[in-house]
Every structure is written in C-alpha cells, then in structure tokens.
Amino acid sequence: MSELEKTTAVEQEYGGSEIQVLEGLEAVRKRPGMYIGSTSSSGLHHLVYEIVDNSIDEALAGYCTEIRVIINADGTITVSDNGRGIPVDIQPQTGRPALEVVFTVLHAGGKFGGGGYKVSGGLHGVGASVVNALSEWLTVQVHKNGKIHEMTFSRGNIVKEMEIVGDTDRTGTTVTFKPDGEMFDTVEYDYETLHTRMRQQAFLNAGLRISIEDKRVGREESDTMCYEGGIREYVTYLNRSKTALHSDVIYVSGSKGDSTAEIALQYNDTYAENIVSFANDIRTPEGGMHETGFKAALTRVLNAYGIKYGMIKGDDKVSGEDCREGITAVISVKLTEAQFEGQTKAKLGNAHIRTLVDNILSDQLAVYLEEHPVVARTILDKALTANRAREAARKARENARRKTGLESGGMPDKLKDCNEKDPALCEIYIVEGDSAAGSANQGRDSRFQAILPMWGKMLNVEKARVDRIYNNDKLSPLISALGGGIGEDFDINRLRYHKIIIMSDADVDGAHIRTLLLTFFFRYMRPLIEHGFVYSAVPPLYKLSRGKTTRVAYSDEERDRVSVELRGESNVKIEIQRYKGLGEMNKDELWETTMDPERRTLRRITLDDASRADEIFTVLMGEQVEPRKEWIEKNAKYAVNIDI
User: Fold this and answer.
1) Is residue 406 part of a domain?
2) pTM score, two decimals?
3) Which of 297, 315, 377, 417 would bridge with 362, disulfide CB 3.0–4.6 Å?
C-alpha cells in the first residue's frame, strides 16, 4: 500500500453491525442492464469487476494485500483475497447472518455509512448481490475467526445455508460463480480483457499484488502484477511504445479532509493527448471535475512559467490543447460519497475535487518546473510548437473547405449519399475497398444508408498533426462526409449521420483498417464514440446451404452447430461456403447478412474498445521496436486461421 492509501486506513472491527440494509433484491434479473450496463460481453466481465472491487475496497481500507482471479477450467470464475473476510455474525436489522444479507439483499454492504469503508468503488454496495442474482450458481467461503464459513446460492436464492466447513489460520473471502447463460449473450470470458483491468487496478493501488490465471485447456496463461511505484509506473507503461521527452515521470499528490488526489504525467514526441482518470479506482472515460481541475491548472502553470522566463511574449498564450499535446497523464482521486453522472459512472461530478486537483497541481507543478528548468523548457517548447501548428491547421482547414466545397455543402466524389436529411435516421457505411463498396451501394436502402469506400493504407496519425490530416487524400473525404470537423473544432451538432458503421473483412487487413479508423476517431472525433455513434459491422464467415435453405455462421463453432441442424437426422450433404471477403458477396447477400437492420449484427464501439485500438496502434506504428516485437510474438497465434 502507498503512503497515500495508508492514510485512509482506520483500524476497526468489521462486523454485522456495519452492514446496513436499504431495500430487497428484486428486478435485477428483470433489468440486468440497469446494474451492469448490458448483458453483452462487457456486462459479463463486469461481474468479475464487481467482486474484485469489493476486494479492492478492503485494500483501500488497509486490510488486503493480495487478490487472485482465476478463470477455471470449466469457465467459471474464482476471486479470492486476504482481507478481513465478509462479516458472518448476525446483522441487526434482519436477524440473519451478514454474509447472507450481503449476497441476497440489494443495497446491503459496508458502504452506506455504517463505518465499514471510508472510500469505495463498485456499484455502491450492490455488487455482490447483483453478481449472485445473475449467476447460475455462486459459492462464497469466508476465512474468519479461525473458521471457514460457506454458503451456496443459485440465481440469487439460497441453496445451502451458511455453515462452518473447516478451520483456518488466515482471513479473507473467496467467491466462485458461474454466470447465468439465460441472462447473457455469451458466458465465455476473455483473458486479455480481465488481464487489462487487473493490471490497471494494480497500478492504481501501489503495492497491492493482483494475480490472474486462465486454467482453460489450451488457453493457459497467468500473470502476477505488483507496482510499488503506483501510477508513476502506469504512465511509464502507457508511454512504453513512445519516445519520452523527459526521463522523469512528474508526480504530485495531496489531500484535504477525506479526499485525496494523485497525478502522474510525462510528455512524449507524439501529437495526441492521453489522459486517463479514475475516481475510487473506477475509470471515468468521460472525465469530470478531476480532469477539469487538472486541465485548468496545467494550462495556467505553463503559461505563467513561459511569461516569467520570456518564452511567451505579450498576449501569445498557449491554449489548453497546446499544453496537452503529447501528454500522458493518470489522475486518481479517492473520496467519500463520489457522485457519478450516468448509470455507467463515466463522469465524476463532485465540484470540490476540481478545486483539490487544481490546487495540488498548481502548487507542486510550479515548484517542479522551477527545480527542473530543462524539463520545463522542453515541455513549453512542445506547447509553443503545437500553438504554431494549430495556426497552420486553421489555414489548412480553410484551404480544405475551399478545395472540397465544404462551405457550399459539396461532398466527396466517392460518397454515395442517402436521401434522408435527419442525421438521427441516417447511417453511413465506411467500406473497405471499391469492390465491396460497389455491392454495398447496389444492395443498400438509399433512403437512409450512405456508402463511402476506403482504399489503401491510411495516414499514420501517430506522427501527424491536424494540418496534415486535413490534406490527406484518405482522410479528408471521410472528414467531409461526416461533416462534424475534427479536433477542437469538432461539433457533434453538425454531424450528418448518427450511425457510422465500419465494414471491413474478417482478416488481418480488415482488422488493420478498423484499428486505424478507431484510432483516428478516438484521437480526433472522440465525441462520436462517447455518444455511441460508431459501430463495427459483423459480416458472417460462412454460408451453409441445403437445397433452397440457406443459413450463415459467424464462427467455426456456429458453423458446426448450424451444419448439424441443417442435416437433421439424415446424412444429406450440406454445402459450406467460406466467405473470403465482403467483395465476394453479391448485393443481395451483403444486404441480407450485413446491412438489413432487421437481420444484421452490429457491434457498438465503446471508449474502451477505441482506447485499446489506440494502444495497439501505438505499439505497431511507434518507433519502439521491442514492444512491437513482443506484441507480434504474443498475438501471432490468433492469425493462424485467418485468410489473408
């Protein structure tokens, strides 16, 4: 545990009286999306996060030093910690064991003013009961007071009452559960998704050891993570594929009352900002008050330093965007009664945190810059260069408008637009290659579907400023077609389509196109993703035919299942066609499988998806050879069965 976190630890008893009941457990199975966001793969993984968050809360309180996450051979999940163990004594309000209450009653936990926790993440105390409600079965073991206490549940109902099943010389909680296939689109866990989240939590809680292991046959992997440097090491990790402009990671921290904040930052030679923020260890992808305070202080301090030492003359101040060009920063705040905007906790709303972060960064960064003049001048030079490039970008935008006729509503030649004018009813397919675009154009519903082909390799936005992007022959048609602008000029209200669908082949080249586009959107049109306007089409991999009956399959497993269904009990021959690319489909096939709103499969892109694409892009296109080599060696096995 870091010194910062140790200050929040208060030695106290943790018993049944700390568990407060607000309401019963109902409606979770009727409306699971209200509690875990969705019943897709992201919701499935959220179940693990909720149980882990409870263990993290024990770490924040100073009682837990190790957490283990296991994907068992049968696909179930086990999460264990060495915290105090969930209370097993009688909870006063219900007269039932506290362990039972925690797993069967919504809004029951040590996070509602009972004194169990000062700071906590998770779903405000509903995590354990929600996971229980959405699991086919769940077993919890608590090591406490020298005994092992165990309970078993099924879909939220008690199957086995709490009983003592053995003796123990340690403390902690172990939860094993099987997600309910009736509630989720898929019940298959992705190791890398869990691994990424666990690594993030290890960075945010300095000194906490988190291990993850996949025991499924043929997929065995494991890792143990512990970062004594906390978010300093997180910044180093995020910058691992970039060239840092200064060797030190700048770190500041402070507290006021029950609230604490720590910030780590380092500049690199790219042109994109990467600010990752957290509140009580919960990622806040849409920022909030802590990011607002950070941005205001950073801009003010850099301008004050530049004016003081004559680097900025007169009124030529650098903007916030200039100051953040090439920055990688991690902001982590911890506070009681965190107020999140929206069900998914994407944005932090506590106003006092803005002041806390602003004050901490203003005071401590100013001192750092005075003590490190070489680093200070390097950062300010970067901001001043960005300022000059922004002026060049403004001129490039004006030129682009004149050349493309943007002012008069002119559109790219290759765009096949739709007739509908209401953006909320319009969708645009960004299609890989002219051949697939031709079929898509013939098969589309021109009332509301537009087609824009993409061809060749796009510009490497890792090493390009906005002025070059406007003049790029691959990206400028896309910018013109969408109509919202880019960067600081992006205006969601000018957007011409509210569904932007990337349609590329299910092969390595197609994945490359998707990664490039998602990285571009993430860096220069992020509101598109924040508003949920970006999608990836999911074309089928196989077409199966028996006489006049045809079906499609999106995976090898689905192909085998559909094949058995088509055969029935007879041994009739089934024709199986492997689609090698979108260009192979005729207009009717493309409409039926990939474009018909009644039958198609679309995957909405989230900020996490785009952030991961951006990270992969940085590794593959950056100047650092070793991270690229590691990524290729690790992921080469996934390309074995892909047609190129």
Assistant:
1) no
2) 0.74
3) 297
